[in-house]
Amino acid sequence: MSGDVVNLRQFRKQKVRSDKEKQAEQNRIAFGRTKAEKTLTRALNEKAEKTLDQGRLERPDETKD
Question: What's the pLDDT band for 39 if we cut at 50, 70, 90?
Fold first, then answer.
């Protein structure tokens, strides 16, 4: 009927460590890219935007007199 005895201080510290590790993993994914990878991504995004803008049809501004 009795459960395991748990030291709350150690439990809290372990929880903080695991939370910090989860945050660190997310940061490694978000910010852990090399300069070359960032540059490549930026260049691809600019190329895609430029290609999209080239296909856009612009209407002449209609002026109301």
Answer: very high
